[in-house]
């Protein structure tokens, strides 16, 4: 036998936990995870050949769930695993011990639930120092598949409006989504002094999961310019972005107000573009966008620095291959002049129930760099 080092230990992974009736693993509470760390550590240290061990993980990470492996919350609080390891490593109890979850359970049988129904979740938690506890309840979609790799995963959609008035720290009242599928109800318990506890329950709603509807947004709404009030962000950069420059507060001869958007593609070949997205950086994988039903047009002013610049400007860049796609798409292929011109895209009678990308442009070089300007981009 040779000496060895434990390079990673922690709570049982998703692939090791028992699965429920809808084939999703049940996650233990942070209180139970702390006990698991102690049990593993004591087993290692009882073996004289074990040189040491590394606990996984001292941080926060979306892997399987938001809380499965991390010993810290994204808001900075520690959980009981930190307390347990502090005691094991130093021989001294941690300061300000974490809250303890005694029970977390549905107020009804955990069978497949009816879409749109109201359920309750009951929590019993205490604090070792009798600190007052604040409980945050969150409903999310569950992850789509149980993966065994350690890659960081995108956080699933949340349903903040599902948590109903009358919810307390001891009981949550939750209005379930109308779409089916698997979901997870989280309880985050904080003592207000840097310590926390977490637990969650996996649930199944009858039927197939449906995309989350987009929220309505009143028009007119300005996408770019000094008076911009639109929620879309110029975050979707495409093509040869290393050669693309964009100044959304240019003072070079604006048409509307004191500022306009200046775009320069500095390459002599290739193409580039930008999409105004909601949420920022999303290409159709998460909920978002807005229902603009009733809007009649997208209008904008454009000019070239010299004239002759070729650019395509449109609305709705995310295709139907994505779950959360734009429900309408159109564009104008333009050859600009050196003077400001106004253009319009007709929206009357179109399906505007989800506009994720309210504006986008693409431009390509024809042997020389391209510079053009946009101003007064408005959906009304």
Tell me about this structure.
The structure is a single chain. By secondary structure, the protein is mostly beta strands. The chain folds into 2 domains: 4-205, Immunoglobulin-like (Sandwich); 215-379, Galactose-binding lectin (Jelly Rolls, Sandwich). It contains 2 helices and 21 strands. The protein has helices at 30-45, 80-90, and strands at 4-9, 50-55, 100-106, 118-126, 134-141, 171-175, 181-190, 196-205, 215-216, 221-222, 233-239, 244-250, 260-265, 271-277, 290-291, 297-304, 310-315, 330-335, 341-346, 357-364, 370-379. The strands form 6 sheets. Strands 10, 12, 13, 16, 19 and 21 form a 6-stranded antiparallel β-sheet that branches. α1 runs parallel beside α2 (80-90). The model has no long low-confidence stretch (mean pLDDT 92).
Short overview:
The protein is mainly β. The protein has helices spanning 30-45, 80-90, and strands at 4-9, 50-55, 100-106, 118-126, 134-141, 171-175, 181-190, 196-205, 215-216, 221-222, 233-239, 244-250, 260-265, 271-277, 290-291, 297-304, 310-315, 330-335, 341-346, 357-364, 370-379.
What's the architecture of the largest domain in CATH terms?
Sandwich
Kindly report the CATH topology of the largest domain: Immunoglobulin-like
| Distance between the amino and carboxyl termini | 76 Å
Calculate Rg over CA atoms: 27 Å
Beta percentage is 35-45%
Task: Please count the helical segments.
Answer: 2
By CATH's scheme, which homologous superfamily of the largest domain applies? Immunoglobulins
